[in-house]
Amino acid sequence: MTQEDIIDIYKKSGALLEGHFELSSGLHSPSYLQSALVLQHPEYASMLCKELAEVFKDRKIELVIAPALGGIIVAYEVARHLNVRTIFAEREKGQLTLRRGFKIKEGERTLVVEDVITTGISVKETIEVVEKNKGMLVGVGSLIDRSGGKAEIGHPYHSLAVLNVPAYKPTDCPLCKSGKKITKPGSRDLRG
Ligand SMILES: [Zn+2]
User: What is the pTM of this model?
Assistant: First the structure.
């Protein structure tokens, strides 16, 4: 699949919206990605995650982990294609952590995945969870990198599609200046 194929699936699912959005970072952007609208279709979820799994299939992955909520379906589908275990990290008092009895074995070869990487904060925190539990980080993958490759993950990562989506300070926002009505989707996964 090409990057265009990936973006097409997002467009077809109504998951790539154009307009004027306030991200949870407070920045304004002319576009907004809602992967849940893609992943509600098992056929698309499987297709995209198989593609991501292929990238890491020779890396002897033993565990796939994602930050909740956005990454859970991606982790599950990638793990299904790799035929390995999958868990997720979730927030407790603002901190990403393992709950529900999830464990990472010492030295376990672990892949971190996410649906959309924006700033890379959630992925970075998930990597910290892996390291704190003495897992071995083998790779980082996402369906989409909307930072144009500028997200600071601190490790090499692979995204099926890279978008360079502008984000403006409200005071510099050309959409505000043109008087375009703003939408606040209010989804945490915008922080990526
Ligand atoms: Zn604006």
Answer: 0.89
Phi and psi (nearest 5°) for 14?
A: 70, 25
Distance from C-alpha of 107 to C-alpha of 71, rounded to nearest angstrom? 22
Distance in Å, CA 54 to ligand 1 centroid: 39
Q: Which two tokens stand for residue 70?
A: 């956005």
Which residue range forms the structural domain that includes residue 31? 3-190
Question: How far, in Å, is the centroid of ligand 1 from the Cα of 146?
Answer: 18
Identify whether the C-beta of residue 116 lies closer than 8 Å to the C-beta of residue 102. Answer: no
Contact between residue 52 and residue 21 where contact means Cβ atoms under 8 Å apart: no
Give the pLDDT score at 127. 98
CATH of residue 139: 3.40.50.2020
Ligand 1 midpoint to CA 184 (Å): 11
Q: Are 65 and 87 in contact (CB under 8 A)?
A: yes
Cα 125 to averaged position of ligand 1 atoms, centre (Å): 29
Residues 37-92 have pLDDT tens digits of 999 999 999 999 999 999 999 999 999 999 999 999 999 999 999 999 999 999 99
Domain count, the chain: 1
